[in-house]
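User: structure tokens for Glycosyl transferase family 1 domain-containing protein, please.
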Amino acid sequence: MIHNDIKYDIVMFNMSSMYDWDHGIVNRNYNVVNTLEKREDIHRIISVDFLPIGIKKAIGHYFKNILWEIKNAEMIYGDLTSVCYQKSEKLFVYSTIDSIFSLKTVVRELKRIEKVLNLQNVIFWSYNTLFIDFIGKLNEKLFVFDTVDNWSEHPEYLKLKPKVKILQNYQTIADKANLIFTVSNSLVDFYSALNRSKDIYWIPNGVDYDFFNNENMADQQTKLDNCQGPIIGYLGTIEERFDIDLLVEVAKANTEKTIAICGPVWDGVKKQMQNKTRNLENIIFTGRIDYKLAPAYLNKFDVAIMPHKVNDFVKSMNPMKMYEYLACGKPIVSTKVAGIEQFDDLIYSSNDTVEFINLITKALAEDNLDKQQKRRQASKNCSWDKRVQIMVDLIKTKLS
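Assistant: Done. Predicted tokens:
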């Protein structure tokens, strides 16, 4: 029996930090926390910043997430290496560098904070594949793991831990998690190979529909205001998954259009991007875009693109930008990445370079108000409220 009057406390191990979220760098994890915070059945959330690995990461983490974030904050706990402060009525942020010294210390501090905040029905909810030592140690009634991408195929996470260790951690998660959510169907298969098929659910990414479908953002000033149109746009981080060669061919075939790359270029691909696009004057790079301005930039696009490589890592993904593009009513041209099959009738897709370029022309020519409305409606059915409702219902059922 599900008890609707029970309120739950959550200790959430994040895949990023509050500092990043406050500075407009958001992800699924951010949206889930924000949505949970609004729910009446959630009492309190301890949001655990991404735990640093190594001295260099710890130093950067200390200055950004501990010294910077505690300014004017109401402290719940603090020592030389850790802080816990109240972010809002329900949300408390714990940030530490003790992960490079002693995980037992992290456990001890979290349990102390749980006691101070009088947490009762604790759900341990994690996004962090790199740290699995906390399972069963946080007074939790349930351990939930939300799997965002396959970190054993992600170049950045492989810099932090060897692939074999990450795979061992996934095996531990498969063995011990009471519930597993995945961002893509391929991750369900991934866990199946680890002999886990029960209590695992594919819950795709979502969108804050009202935020992105905001006509008031259309007049917001952006770095694209004086660009020659039409604008072929990409919003997001440029990393290894981004097909730079495909971008170059798109730019060469559309010299009369502007190719707008709105987002940061990671160091691992920066040199390659600079070398290959140096002589292409119709490509502009805006740099990092604050999440608050994302709808304004998307409103400037005439067509939105997702030129991602198709490999094992990309197969484990479910691009949030796809839902955001749709919420703004934009025609989308994409390579055949995981997730687009949900919107076969709304997204133009091809892995062939020539066809990809031709589809951009087709998308621009066929766009109309009716198609724009269909895209918006499709994204409206994928709200974060609906995604998180599914998650919470599964948790309540498991606990009943």
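User: Anything notable?

Assistant: The chain has 16 helices and 15 strands.
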